[in-house]
Amino acid sequence: MKLLQRRIVDISLLDHEPTGLNRSPPMQLLKTGAFLRAARSARLSIPNRRAPPATTYTPSRWSSSQVATEEHHPFPEQSVNASREVDPAKTAEFKNDGVQKSDTNTISYKQQATIAGTPYIVDQTTNVTSSILGLVGRNLYDHPDHPICITRKLIESCFPHPEYNHFTMSDPVVTVKDNFDVLGFPADHPGRSRTDTYYVNSTHLLRTHTSAHQHAAFQTLATEKRTSGYTICADVYRRDSIDRSHFPVFHQMEGARVWGLPPNAESRYHAQTIRTAKMAKQLDALPKTSIEVEDNATSFSRDTNPMQSEHDPVELQLVVSHLKRSLEYLMEQIHKASQESLDPSARQASGPLKVRWVEAYFPFTSPSFELEVLWNGEWLELLGCGVVQQPILNNAGLKYSIGWAWGLGIERFAMLLFGIPDIRLFWSDDRRFLRQFSRGKVTKFEPFSKFPPCYKDIAFWINPSPGVASPIGAEAPSTSGVAAAAGGDATKASPSETQPAAFHENDIMEVVRDIAGSLAEDVKLVDEFVHPTSGRKSLCYRINYRSLERTLTNEEVNGLHDEVARRMASQFGVELR
Ligand code: FA5
Ligand code: MG
C-alpha cells in the first residue's frame, strides 16, 4: 500500500510553477573564434527532431566545438525498448525555437511528460515533478558570464584540443541502460532506487551523472582518429538532501583519455611495446606541478582496489600516473586562478593548497580514486576517477585500448574558485549575483546581504514495517560500500524497491523541495524516538526557510510549512505529532 502511494504521481503536486526558481538571462552574443565555436556548440546542443518512431530511441546529439555540422552525427543509432509517445499530432505543439525554455517541460499525470521537446509516456515508475522539470533546459554551462560556464571553460583549457574534444549534452533524459546497465551497476545499487533517482518512466530517467554518455563518447573515439580524449559537460539530477552544498540539479564534467594499439605492428607484443614507450613519453611531457599532494592510493590491492587482469602492470602504472598528474595540473590551475582573484593579504592568509588521493569504488573503473581538497579545515571530495573497465571500452569498439576516466562536480570547483557559499545561488537570476561575473574572469563573490532564517520543525510517526528504516544509524544494506557512484546513499534507508523502507529521508527532501523550492536552505533530522511500548518510531525534522534575495514573512513560511505537513501525511501516510 505504502509502495503504491509512493509510485503515484499526484497531478495537483505537479502542475504548479516551481517556487523561487528563476530563469537565466538570454545568451550573450559571442564574438571570438573560440566563442563562435562555443556558440555553434550551444546551437547544436539543442535537439531539433520530431518524435521518433515507436520503438526507436534516437540518442541526443553531441554538441561539440569540433562537430562542424548537425548532419555530422557521431553517435550510431541504438535501438532499445523505449516508452516514447508516438502521436505525431501532439508533437506539433512542442516548441523548438532554438532556445530551450523551462516552460517547454511539462508533466501531466496518467498522460505524458514533455522534456526538452520530446514526449514520454508516464507510468508507475514516474517520479519526476514539475518543479524539477522547471530546471531542465537552463543550460547554465552555456551562458558565458555565468560562474558554471566560466569554470567549465577553465577546466576544458586544461584538457586542450586536438587531444581532447569538448562536448555539452543538453537533453538530460537518458535510458536506464546508458545510466546504469552498460556501466555495470549491480541490480541492487542504491543509485537505481526511485528514492534517489528521478525516473521519467520505467525505461528513461534524468541522468544522475555524465557517465551516462560514456559509452556513446567512447564510440566516437573509436571512429575519430585525430583525438584520443574528451570532456563532457551536462546538468545531472539526484533526489538528495537539502543543504548549502546539495541541490537536486548540479553540473558534472566527465573526462576520458585512451591509448590504442598502433596499427601495422609486426605483432600484438610489438604494438604494445610501441604504445608503452609512447605513453611514457606523453607522461613525461605533462606540465609539472608544485602543489602539495598526499597520495594514499598507490598500491592496487586485489581486495580493495584491484588492477584488471587484462592490463600490463607497467602500462597500468603509466595510465594511473597520467590520470593523477593531469588532474593535479587541473587543481593547480584552479588554485592559481582562485588566488589571482584575491588581494595580497587574503592570498597570504589562505595558505597553500592541500590535496590528497584516496581509494574509491565505481562499477565502471578499477582501480578507482577520489581527489579531495582541504577546504575550511575539512577534506572535500572534488572528483572520482579510475582506469576504465575493459569491457566498457571493448563494447564501444575500443577493444585493445587502455584508458582513464574522471567525473567532477562543477559547483564544487566553482565554490572554491569564486567563494560562492550556497549552491542555490548558481540558480539565481538576481542581478546582484549575476553582474559580479564575466567571461574569462575569476572574481571573488561579494555577498549582497544575508536575510534572516526561519526554522520550523515537523514531527511525525512513521509506520514500523517492513523493518526499521532509520535515516540515523541505519544498518547499511548489502550494497553498503558501493554507494559512491552516481548518487544513492546506502546508509539512508533501503535502496531496493523490493524491500521498500517505511520512510526514506529523500521523500521529505522531495516534498520540501517541491513546495518551497530554493526557499528551503536546509533540512535536518534533529530528533528520533522509539515509543517504549508500541515500538513506533517518531522523527523530527527541522526545516530552515531562508530566501537568498529577500526577507520572508511569517505568514508565507507558515503557509509553506503547513503544506509540507499536509503533503507528508497525504503522500506518505505518516502520522503528524
Ligand atoms: C560519479 O558521478 C561518477 N560518475 C564519477 C566518475 C566518472 C568516476 C568517471 C569514475 C570515472 P560521484 O557520485 O562521486 O561519482 O560524483 C562525482 C562528483 O560530483 C563528486 O566528486 C562531487 O564533486 C560531485 N557531486 C556529487 N554529488 C553532488 C551533489 N549532490 N552536489 C554537488 N556536487 C556533487
Ligand atoms: Mg563520490
Span between termini: 22 Å
**Count of helical stretches:** 16
Number of domains: 2
Helix percent reads: 25-40%
Say what the CATH topology of the largest domain is.
BirA Bifunctional Protein, domain 2
What fraction strand? 15-25%
The first-level CATH class of the largest domain is given as: Alpha Beta
At CATH level 2, the architecture of the largest domain is 2-Layer Sandwich
Category from helices, strands and their pairing: alpha+beta
Number of strands: 18
Helices and strands in order:
Layout: H1 2-7, H2 11-14, H3 33-44, E1 63-64, H4 88-91, E2 106-107, E3 112-115, E4 118-121, H5 130-133, H6 147-157, E5 164-168, E6 173-175, H7 176-179, E7 204-206, H8 214-223, E8 229-237, E9 249-259, H9 268-285, E10 292-295, H10 313-340, H11 344-350, E11 354-362, E12 365-375, E13 378-388, H12 390-395, E14 402-409, H13 410-418, H14 431-434, E15 454-462, H15 505-516, E16 520-530, E17 537-545, H16 554-572, E18 575-576
Parallel strand pairs: 5-8, 10-11
Antiparallel strand pairs: 1-5, 2-3, 3-4, 6-7, 8-9, 9-14, 11-12, 12-13, 13-14, 15-17, 15-18, 16-17
Magnesium ion (MG) binds at residues 381, 384, 484.
Structural write-up:
The chain folds into two domains: 112-435, Bira Bifunctional Protein, Domain 2 (BirA Bifunctional Protein, domain 2, 2-Layer Sandwich), CATH 3.30.930.10; 454-468 and 484-576, Alpha-Beta Plaits, CATH 3.30.70. 27% of the residues lie in helices and 20% in strands. It is built from 16 helices and 18 strands. The strands form four sheets. Strands 1-5-8-9-14-13-12-11-10 form a nine-stranded mixed beta sheet, sandwiched between helices. It is globular. The protein starts with a helix and ends with a strand. Residues 381, 384, 484 line the site of magnesium ion.
